[in-house]
Structure formats: C-alpha cells, structure tokens
C-alpha cells in the first residue's frame, strides 16, 4: 500500500495513487548499488511496499494545482527509485492517471497537454514546447489570500465545463496536438 503523510498518515490503498504505482511497477528495472549493498530485481518491485511521506506547504484544493504537482512528483520519484527508463512523455501519461494536469507538471517551462486518440486515454500526454529558461524575464507571483478549500472540485468543474462549453467541445474535436 502507499501512504501519504500530510498532517496525519492515511492509507491510500486504491484509485489514482495505486494506478500510478501499478504503471511504474510495470516498467521497473533491476536496481543495484554495490556500495550500499542494494540489489532489487525487477520482479521484486511488485512485492515491496512503498511508504511515502509528503508534506505540502501550499494550500491543497485551493485551485493552484497542488494535486497535479503531487502526482507528477510521485510518478517521477517512483520512476527514479524503480529505475524506470521511460522518457518524460511516457511519465506524463502515467502522472495523468493521478491528476489530469499532472502530465504538464512533469516538465518545466511551457507545456501542451495532448488529448491523444485512444479511447482509453493511454496516449494522452504532455509535450514540452519550450524549457523553463526560454523566458528569462517572465515572473509569476501568486499571493495566497486564503487557504480555504474551494467549493467546486477540479474534477466536478471540468466535468461541468465538458458538458456545457461549446468552445471546449470544439477544442476536443479539433485536437490541437496534431
């Protein structure tokens, strides 16, 4: 099972976290560090439990993509731990299973989220357009005026947008990532 500690430790035994963990485990490779006396075979990753302590100093569920950052960090870190040899595009596709926007958070800089063509969304991933050094003079300031949780979750808000916005429906039909 996966544990995530914020103010208290809670079990994350299902859903989005487990999907990400399962996908990373599928891609795991042998890990060997002779100096530290570590040798983990690819097949052993399925049996090992992972304990994750995550502490966030940013408001959660306030509309600032903290869950996207968290899932991107989770997937990237598990990938490093388990010696995954995937490129950022593949990792972004895995992170997207935790939080849609997480696919963009794998990269730095200016990133585009491509819908893909597969019905199961398996080819939906992010593409970096320019890296974080492209606009040296760009500065973004975020002033947190309230750490209160937003009333509408991102999932509900996006579902409502998909159902009611003709502009978003057009964008999905045109698929700007071709």
UniProtKB/TrEMBL annotation:
This is diphosphomevalonate decarboxylase. GO terms for cellular component: cytosol. GO terms for biological process: isopentenyl diphosphate biosynthetic process, mevalonate pathway; sterol biosynthetic process. Residues 140-173 form the Mvd1 C-terminal domain. The keyword Hydrolase does not apply. PANTHER family: DIPHOSPHOMEVALONATE DECARBOXYLASE (PTHR10977:SF3). Residues 13-126 form the Diphosphomevalonate decarboxylase-like N-terminal domain. It is an enzyme of class 4 (lyase). It comes from the Eukaryota.
């Amino acid at each position: 099972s996966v544990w995530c500690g914020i103010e208290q430790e809670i079990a994350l035994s299902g859903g989005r976290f487990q999907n990400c963990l399962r996908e990373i485990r599928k891609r795991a490779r042998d890990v060997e560090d002779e100096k530290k006396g570590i040798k983990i075979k690819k097949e052993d990753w399925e049996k090992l439990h992972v304990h994750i302590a995550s502490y966030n100093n940013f408001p959660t569920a306030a509309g600032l993509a903290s869950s996207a950052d968290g899932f991107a960090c989770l997937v990237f870190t598990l990938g490093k731990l388990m010696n995954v040899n995937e490129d950022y595009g593949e990792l972004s596709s895995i992170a997207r299973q935790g939080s849609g926007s997480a696919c963009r958070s794998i990269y730095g800089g200016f990133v585009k989220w491509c819908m893909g063509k597969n019905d199961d969304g398996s080819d939906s991933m992010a593409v970096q357009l320019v890296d974080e050094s492209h606009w040296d003079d760009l500065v973004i300031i975020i002033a947190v005026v309230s750490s209160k949780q937003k009333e509408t979750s991102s999932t509900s808000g996006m579902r409502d947008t998909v159902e009611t916005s003709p502009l978003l429906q057009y964008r999905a039909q045109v698929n700007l990532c071709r």
